[in-house]
Write a structure and sequence with these properties.
Number of strands: 22
Shape: globular
Radius of gyration: 22 Å
CATH class of the largest domain: Alpha Beta
Number of helices: 17
Strand order of the largest sheet: 16-17-15-14-20-21-22
CATH topology of the largest domain: Nucleotidyltransferase, domain 5
CATH superfamily of the largest domain: ATPase, nucleotide binding domain
Largest sheet: 7 strands, mixed
Helix content: 25-40%
Distance between the termini: 52 Å
């Protein structure tokens, strides 16, 4: 039987999953690595850690499943976005990887109104310090010797593909947040590359996410434990792979990924150029993914738990279960670290509205859970297309039936939870299977998966939250300038972008 290997290079760990050709999970492995923070706005990882994690994961997968590496028909890799890693002609990194959390390229990302408008008109996305082009510009401006020596600048998954196959590439899903690709064609934009003063010779070819880039080399087989000659596809950014694993197939199919960060988005069949959401190809031609979210989503409840210091998540859920809908009509604006897409308000902060002496910590726990869902609803309502009637729900909150229920009630949406915990590795395996012809199409692959469990909100609770959400929207609009003024007092020597 043919097996597929999906690899996900995440912020804190590499995850690898083995599937049979019917996309039934066979085995999974996870290996962590460290992030260093060498200075303000900086976040780095050692790319060699990803290689070591892959070798350990392959050994664990083959040992646990009894499936030899030679039975793996194809490999797909997804990775966190965005990265701009300079490598030499052998694919060796020329320094640590500036991961998506790294914002040292703030000056390079700053564009005047005309340049920003031009970028949105071509690329669809706003300029942001976390993205590929500003980081590449930062290396050019601050490490000219590294820039000169670099053969290519690579995204996260492209680095691993390069080390496995010896071939440099960039997948089309990464084109959006590269800030130098044309959203319509998926290929590079000469206009944007020239405007940023970048050397096109250092940019690898853009290829389709499911295209076979090359095969595992003998050298890579030695350190990875994979079989030489195994096909490797270009892969995708992690969010794209995850939504493919979530079974998003048609325009308006939507998802909510609710964990530390809460992301929301939906498929569209035509590019959107309004500059609100993040937008990029959705892994297959003719579909794009429009996204927004809450940058401090589920982290708000974690912050509250740590503040209490004497309680775990299980106990918080039990406290919430003892409260009733509307028992304490208060809410939380969940923007504690500012907000990127679709609001682009870096100077926002959190706010609790409606405190009275009757409020207990059980009410506050419920409020933080509800706040994440209010933020998701708010993001959907701001994105092009608006809030859909249903979505697939994934992420850490799905481990809590309480939180899952509140998400449905607050958003007013019918939600479904896929049975797989790791949707990103599943999506990468699907792309790999498409690349070698195991699946004729996205629909063919998704059709082999079991349907997720769906649940609808309680009508009475949904009606209450609809009324409370109207107050939430008014509070956001009314407090936006107030919170910006607070940010000036909090950070008198800096202006947050």
């Amino acid at each position: 039987m043919d097996y597929l290997l999906g690899i996900d290079i995440g912020t804190s760990s590499l995850k690898a999953s083995l599937y049979d050709r019917n996309l039934v999970p066979v085995a999974a492995a996870r290996h962590e690595y460290a992030t260093s923070y060498p200075g303000p706005g900086r976040a780095e990882q050692d790319p060699e850690d990803w290689l070591r994690a892959l070798g350990a994961a392959v050994s664990e997968l083959t040992g646990r499943s009894g499936v030899p590496a030679s039975a793996i028909a194809c490999i797909g890799v997804d990775g966190m976005s965005s990265l701009a890693l300079p490598v030499d002609s052998d694919g060796a990194p020329l320094g640590p990887a500036m991961i998506w959390l790294d914002r040292r390229a703030a000056a390079e990302a700053r564009l005047d109104a005309a340049a920003e408008a031009e970028q949105i008109a071509i690329n669809g996305n706003r300029s942001d310090a976390s993205n590929f082009a500003p980081k590449m510009m930062w290396v050019r401006d601050h490490q000219p010797e590294v820039y000169a020596h670099a053969a290519h600048f690579l995204h996260t998954n492209a680095f691993l593909v390069r080390r496995l196959t010896g071939v440099a590439s960039v997948d089309r899903s990464e084109g959006g947040l590269s800030q130098i690709c044309d959203l319509r064609t998926g290929d590079y934009s000469d206009t944007l590359i020239e405007a940023r003063g970048l050397d096109r010779r250092k940019l690898p070819p853009v290829v389709a996410c499911s295209e076979v880039v090359g095969k595992v080399t003998a050298e890579a087989a030695a350190w990875s434990g994979l079989a030489a000659g195994t096909p490797v596809v270009a892969g995708a950014m992690d969010n794209v792979a995850a939504t493919l694993g979530c079974r998003l197939l048609l325009p308006n199919d939507a998802y909510i990924s609710a964990g530390t960060v809460t992301n929301v988005g939906m498929l569209v069949d035509a590019p959107v150029f309004d500059g609100r959401g993040l937008i990029y190809e959705a892994g297959t031609p003719g579909l794009w993914l429009v996204n927004g979210g809450v940058d401090f989503g589920g982290a708000g409840l974690s912050w509250f738990r740590d503040l209490l210091g004497d309680i775990d998540f299980g106990e918080l859920c039990r406290l919430v279960d003892d409260t009733r809908t509307g028992e304490a009509a208060l809410f939380f604006l969940p923007y504690m670290v500012g907000q990127r897409a679709p609001f682009w308000k870096g100077d926002m902060s959190g706010a609790i509205i409606g405190l009275t002496p009757a409020v207990r910590r059980s009410h506050l726990a419920r409020m933080f859970m509800e706040g994440t869902a209010f933020g998701a609803r708010h993001a959907f309502d701001t994105l092009a297309g608006g809030r859909p009637p249903r979505a697939v729900l994934t992420g850490g909150i799905t481990n809590s039936t309480t939180w899952r229920r509140l998400f449905a009630e607050v958003t007013g949406m019918t939600l479904s939870v896929p049975p797989e915990a790791e949707t990103a590795t599943l999506g990468s395996a699907i792309l790999a299977g498409m690349g070698v012809g195991l699946y004729a199409s996205r629909a063919d692959a998704i059709g082999r998966l079991s349907p997720p469990e769906a649940f609808s909100p309680d009508p009475a609770a949904a009606a209450f939250y609809c009324d409370l959400y109207a107050v939430f929207q008014d509070a956001y609009a009314g407090l936006s300038d107030v919170l910006s003024r607070l940010a000036v007092l909090r950070y008198p020597s800096e202006v947050k972008a």
